[in-house]
Amino acid sequence: MSLIITDECINCDVCEPECPNEAISQGEEIYEIDKDKCTECVGHYDEPQCQQVCPVDCIPFNENNRETREQLIFKYEKLTGDTFVE
User: Fold this and answer.
1) C-alpha–C-alpha distance, residues 77 and 84, integer Å
2) Among positive and negative, which fits the CA dihedral 55, 30, 47, 63?
3) What's the rounded Cα separation, in Å, for the pair 20 and 64?
4) CB neighbour class for 15 (10 Å; exposed up to 12, middle 13-18, buried from 19)
5) Could you write out the three-class secondary structure of 26-76?
6) Residue 66 and which of 6, 35, 42, 55 are 20 to 30 A apart at CA?
7) How far is CA 43 from CA 16, 63, 82, in A?
8) Minimal CA–CA distance to 21: which of 7, 51, 42?
9) Rounded to an integer, what distance in angstroms lies between the CA atom of residue 31 and that of residue 29?
10) Are 10 and 56 a contacting pair, CB within 8 Å?
11) 2-29: pLDDT as tens digits
12) What's the mean pLDDT in 34-54?
């Protein structure tokens, strides 16, 4: 997973419906991102949509778990069954 939601999250509900992979869900206290479903929107959009709509900028890249573009493309193809096209 390359994105995380920090504890600055205000549970505003705008990120969850924007995720094309349904990787965002309500956790015990704040929203969480499923690392196995997050592709940073690779294959769907040019930029992570959750970051674009977050009003408090609480969805940074997880520097402790960065994925390469190739890894994200592979994950996209596995999740969707589609072939990635640039």
Assistant:
1) 6
2) positive
3) 24
4) buried
5) ECCCCEEECCCCCCCCCCCCCCCHHHHHCCCCCCCECCCCCCCHHHHHHHH
6) 55
7) 18, 21, 9
8) 42
9) 7
10) yes
11) 799 999 999 999 999 999 999 999 999 9
12) 96
- The amino acid present at 36, given as its one-letter code, is D
Q: What is the token pair recorded at 66?
A: 């960065």
Q: State how beta strands 31-33 and 24-26 pair.
A: antiparallel
Q: Which CATH architecture has domain 16-80?
A: 2-Layer Sandwich (3.30)
> Phi and psi of 61, rounded to 5°?
-75, 140
d(CA 26, CA 44): 22
For 77, phi then psi, to 5°, come to -65, -40
